[in-house]
Design a protein that fits this description.
The protein is of the alpha+beta class. The chain has three helices and six strands; from the N terminus they run H-E-E-H-E-E-E-H-E. Strands 1, 2, 3, 4, 5 and 6 form a six-stranded mixed sheet that branches.
């Protein structure tokens, strides 16, 4: 039985409420997977993708994990690079906790050796409230 189905649906509604195309990375204890979400709110490219998205997100709510959202805005830099907003969410004990912009930047730039990569051009690190 899915223990945290209501919380999962609330978070999905919040993600879908962010305007624009998105890439959502789900990080459970067992897997990391990325999903495209279209402007119209379609998760993935078929029903299997959508079902997998919900299965992994439910697993995260039941066992802890994280969600990263890369939102593509309609704005571009002068070099024609799309401007993106990045949000982060930690899920612990069935509760979604939005990261602040400094935390999102840190986890986005952290390298395996513990150093930080250079700041990506055309990226806004954003706070999300869950």
């Amino acid at each position: 039985m899915i223990k945290f189905e209501t919380e999962t649906n609330k978070l999905v509604d919040q993600i879908l409420g962010l305007f624009g195309n998105k890439i959502v990375t789900l990080c459970s204890e067992d897997e990391i997977e990325m999903f495209d979400i279209s402007l119209s709110g379609e998760i993935g490219y078929n029903l299997v993708h959508k079902a997998r998205f919900y299965r992994i997100l439910n697993d995260i709510f039941n066992n802890n994990g994280a969600v990263m959202i890369r939102q593509f805005t309609e704005d571009y830099t002068k070099n024609n690079i799309p401007i993106k907003n990045i949000y982060g969410i930690r899920i612990s004990n069935g509760k979604a906790i939005g990261l602040n912009s400094e935390q999102v930047e840190y986890v986005s730039r952290l390298q395996p050796d513990g150093t930080l990569s250079i700041k990506e051009e055309a990226v806004n690190y954003c706070t999300i409230n869950c």
